[in-house]
Design goal:
With about 450 residues, this protein is mainly alpha-helical. The chain is built from 14 helices and no strands.
Amino acid sequence: MEKWTNKSVWRLLWPLIVEQLLAVTIGIADTAMVTAVGESAISGVSLVDQINQLLIIAFSALATGGSVVVSQYIGRGDTSNSANASKQLLLANLCTSCTITLVTLLSYKYILLLVYGNIEIAVMENAKRYFWMSALSMPFFAATTSCGALFRAMGNSRLPMFTAVFMNVINIAGNAVFIFIFNMGVTGAALATLICRAAGAAILFAFLLSNHSAPIYPESLHKTKPDMLMIKRILNIGIPGAVESSLFQFGKILLSRLVSAFGTASIAANAITGSVASFVFMPGTGFCMALLTVVSQCLGAKDYAEAKRWTFRLMRTMYITLAILNIIILCTLDWWLGLFDLSAEAVSLTKNFLRLHCITSSIAWPLSFGLPNSLRAAGDAKFVMYTAIGTMWLVRITSAYLFAYIFHFGALAVWMGMGLDFFFRGTIFTVRWLSGKWESKRVI
């Protein structure tokens, strides 16, 4: 493996940050354009997005597991196994995503009733329409996620970024046509997302199949048979991540139900806060993905000193970046809220939510969500899973309900609990990294 340099890491990092910022604008565009239909529409979209995040976790986690395995083989210089791992990832994610789509299409009404119960009729009707249509895009999202992870594993993050640009153009144009010209409401927003994801999947898959010399080239993909040993290696990283993220997202759904108990204004404010806050999370996610690739390749080459050095440098830069972005959001709150058609009550709530979130995420988010990617890259995925599940349920959810119903903070309690969760999990991951126990783990 060639050693990472400032130039090569920057070449990997900046497209990741741009890609994540562009990816989140798909949700922002849906949310902003759907506000024109009314608060019941934006509330329905917000509630479904919480469930959709839970449903796509399986193949997102598989992509992460595949990325770690492929990156370590690339770091070791074993192109035969890196190509085989690529094929096994694509096969596993295709089967998973198609199964999830089928189950969702058959049971979406019952899922919404089970999770959210007796919400307002208008909100429920919008949620049903958005949920059904958005389920159709899951296989395309899985293909985009898998192919993008494979390109990033070999250090090519620019192609996924340019694909994200193209997807955003299609999505925004589709929103404009379907929502404002054909008056399709939330169905139009979901249809635009479906089309843009299908286009993104087609582009990345075409480039993957045309790059014969790449260490991720899936030769004879149509003849691929399951390689259980390789799939096991992927699942050793992917399953803990899937369990962690699934229970984490399920906890967020419970918190969304807590928010919904305080009325439509609180639901809308929570949705807008999540959308605006994502502009900080997404660059942070770019750093997380860079950590995964860089540290995985270093550990594949058994260079632990380089893994530690790049973890420290990327974490430091992540802290600086997130602090700057949060300060910008705090200074431009009125501008952000002017993008959405909200009631005065929803505006007031959103400002309080965002102020609290900007402070807590600046202090503890990098250690909570960035550092564990270095642990995953080392194969320490189970420890990350246990910690994340424990803090989510024992800290975030418990404290949110206490703050809401015992101390009467209302929907603000959800964001207070989130901040506490950041601090607790960040502390635990820091102690684990400094202990060096992750160095005894193996992926391949």
